[in-house]
Design a protein that fits this description.
This protein is α/β, with parallel strands linked by helices and about 260 residues long. The chain is about 40% helix and about 15% strand. Strand 4, helix 8 and strand 5 form a beta-alpha-beta unit. The protein is globular.
Length: about 260
Amino acid sequence: MTVPNAARMYDYSLGGYHNFAVDREFVDRAEKLMPGASWGSHANRAFVGRSVRWLVEVGIRQFLDIGSGIPTLGNVHQIAQQAAPESRVLYVDIDPVAVAHSRALLAGNPRAEVIQGDVRAAAEIVYHPDVVRLLDFSRPVAVLLNAVLHFVPDADDPADLVAQLCESLVSGSYLTITHATPIPALSAEQDDLRALYESTPTSLHYRTKDQVVAMLAGFELVEPGLVNVTDWRPDPDEADDPPPAAVPIAAVARKI
């Protein structure tokens, strides 16, 4: 409660209520350093909705959402189950507050569960009893890694973590990623924002498109490929692109 938390900060950026003063102060400071940063949270959330709807359209009925954060409007299970009520969703987050709120939200929903877990401990997630009970890995699963890998340092080898998570997936499964990326014209602002994140448990790591593509070994990109989140199959009524500072990159990829 006294240290800024990524899940609670994201919740505040989206207009949620499951956050504390320290989270709100951090987001406000980040917005001053890089105007439009909070807009990026909304753009990321919109991508999650569009990509989940698309995955349901192509037949996916199982979702493993890692780094899911605190429940807010437009959760994966709400989107997927509205389109296909038989869809099953397993949420994973490292933050106990996010897990507690998710558990309360999901009470009475037999096709959606949450566990506490760390993306850096892939085997513990994939072989967790609740995951194995809810998801059938002999059938396609969509693994969602949205706005989480840029909190994983290079020393933990995020590409290898992705490979570990996905080695249990059958052909025809999918992976979604959104990730903060360096913008040369804003290098000073990004450096300031990265320094600010050093005061939290989750340091921020920008990665280039080539670095993110390297995480997708064994997958083929779905059109339009790795693009700004606002450019991945945007809805006709969505707003124009935000300032460059607010735009993470995003991809949906299919396991070969």
